[in-house]
Specification:
37% of the residues lie in helices and 14% in strands. It is built from 18 helices and 15 strands. By secondary structure, the chain is an alpha+beta fold.
Length: 538
């Protein structure tokens, strides 16, 4: 074991401190098991080459969903493992001893603030870029405990950085221990890059979000503003490094039949496999990078599933498949008591003013509970999302709790002097909802954030003004994120409702003793002479 076999002498104060820090992350047992497997028994140390090979990441020909693919990305991944080792794991003459192994892990994967973990990602990225022979505008102050960074990023640099994080997470969650190489699918994440560009750079209103060349875009993103954007929009981005390092150390320890929960991807790897759905891998990953919640793991399962198109148990409703309208929607989501993700694709009416093709945009809403038929707002929490062509997260403001509104037509025909709107809404107030879907799922209304005190302010769609925007809905998707338990509860609810419906349709003729008592004879007598005086038997 690493701690006991690394030295015959009592543990030093430094070693005990590092072991306590590693234990606080839950990784100390893994480190103690992996150190003997990686180290040389004679020197009781790990050679630099061995540790670099342990963290080495290689994908020769990644499959890319986006048409914008920097050719240098596969070669950048070749330098990832050596960059991690050179930056954090100090080597002595005999190699990396137990103390250096512990210290390196704590430096890159220990408990730290979000800003510090993002700084570490940038340091690894800058080192890999330097090893690749490319230039970088990032500058790091030497011997600085806070690891201060100066400089800026280009949008193409940010694309490489995000893809590097995705590749580490993909490798950690999909590669089996028996495999040295596997397939890599790079999602389309232009919406994430554009989100950072708009937040960090000075762009005018004429900036075309739909036809933007990310790779060739020449704008500087100051690293300070980028960190602020990442902390707000993608605070758990840096978790990919910890998951990658832990997974690589597990592979060095575990046998093939003990490879954990990772599964090798063997489904449809074509670039257009998930493009038919609104929830692509890139969009699902962007949602999962938002502040950690109970649905983060369920979203990540969709990102790294063998075939996101085949995840029928999670896709509860799709308007192009199940039909448009509130009734069709309700028949598919009723009885589901768990978090739900609603995605809406639409295009505003003024999109046809030019002769150009209509420009569609996608917005989303996350609810922490199932839908209920109410004429008032309800809910405990949720988020709104601008998803495409640019990504933003609008979390709860804490001022109001008008998270969800879902109201169907009353079953009984009762006169209402002031009928409540029939449809689905998120945020705002009744008749002034921030997002409202009509009962036919034909029209979507998006209002200015001034009408809403439930969610954070900001534009849900590009170039949104103060006036309400009415748009034509092209697609609606609802994804269940409550896991297998919520789906099983809904399935049992549907079976029970079908049984009750079937029972109501049946008429048991045995309950009628004779023909004279049957409803058929009663109907025939009424049709024959409804005004005929009948003698009452007493």
């Amino acid at each position: 074991m690493g701690a006991s076999s690394s030295t015959e002498q009592p543990a030093s104060a430094e070693q005990r401190e590092l072991e306590n820090i590693a234990a606080s992350t839950g990784a100390l047992p893994l480190l103690q098991k992996s150190f003997p497997n990686l180290s040389d028994p004679q020197t009781n140390a790990i050679s630099v080459q061995t540790l670099q090979q342990c963290f080495h990441l290689c994908y020769e020909d990644p499959v890319c969903e986006s048409q914008q693919k920097p050719e240098s990305f596969p070669r950048l991944l070749d330098h990832l493992g050596s960059s991690i080792v050179d930056l954090f794991f100090l080597s002595e003459k005999g190699g990396i001893n137990w103390l250096g192994f512990l210290g390196g892990y704590v430096k890159c994967c220990g408990r730290m603030s979000t800003s510090m973990s993002l700084n570490i990602l940038l340091r690894i990225f800058a080192m890999a870029v330097k090893k690749l022979g490319l230039s970088s505008n990032l500058e790091f102050e030497p011997d600085d405990a806070d690891c201060k960074i100066n400089g800026s990023l280009l949008p193409s640099d940010l694309l490489l950085l995000l893809w590097m994080c995705w590749a580490m997470l993909w490798n950690a969650r999909t590669l089996k221990s028996s495999e040295r190489k596997g397939n890599l699918l790079l999602p389309d994440i232009n919406h994430l890059v554009l989100s950072a560009v708009v937040a960090c750079a000075e762009v005018d209103s004429s900036f075309d979000l739909w036809n933007c060349d990310i790779v060739g875009l020449d704008v500087q993103l100051p690293v300070g503003k980028f960190l602020n954007w990442a902390i707000t929009t993608a605070p758990i981005l840096s978790d990919c490094l910890t998951q990658y390092v832990n997974r690589r150390l597990q592979i060095s320890v575990l046998a093939e039949d003990e490879a954990g929960s990772s599964e090798s991807i063997s489904g449809d790897m074509s670039p257009n496999a998930s493009q038919a759905l609104l929830l692509t891998r890139g969009r699902a990953w962007a949602i999962s990078l938002a502040p950690r919640s109970t649905i983060t793991e369920e979203i990540l399962k969709l990102c790294f599933s063998a075939d996101i198109v085949g995840t029928d148990e999670n896709l509860l409703y799709r308007s192009s498949t199940h039909g448009k309208g509130l009734n069709r929607f309700w028949s598919n989501v009723e009885g589901y008591h768990g978090p739900l993700l609603v995605l809406i694709s639409a295009n505003s009416e003024d999109a046809y003013q030019d002769n150009n093709k209509a420009r569609k945009w996608i917005i989303g809403a996350l609810t922490q509970q199932g839908f209920e038929n109410k004429d008032t707002f309800y809910g405990s929490s949720g988020n709104l999302y601008a998803i495409s062509p640019i990504f933003h997260v609008f979390s709860p403001s804490g001022k109001e709790k008008n998270y969800v509104y879902s109201h169907l037509h009353p079953t009984g025909r009762v006169y209402e002097s002031h009928p409540k709107p029939v449809g689905i809404a998120f945020g705002g107030t009744t008749t002034n909802e921030r997002v409202f879907i009509d009962e036919d799922f034909a029209k979507l209304t998006v209002r200015h954030h001034a009408m809403d005190k439930t969610y954070q302010p900001g534009s849900l769609i590009p170039n949104q003004g103060f006036l309400p925007v009415e748009a034509s809905i092209s697609e609606v998707e609802v994804w269940g994120l409550g896991g297998k338990t919520a789906k099983e509860v809904q399935d049992s609810y549907k079976k029970r409702e079908e049984l009750f419906t079937e029972q109501r349709r049946k008429v048991d003729l045995k309950t009628f003793a004779t023909w004279d008592d049957s409803p058929e004879k009663m109907m025939m007598d009424m049709m024959g002479d409804p005004n005929r005086v009948q003698r009452e038997d007493r």
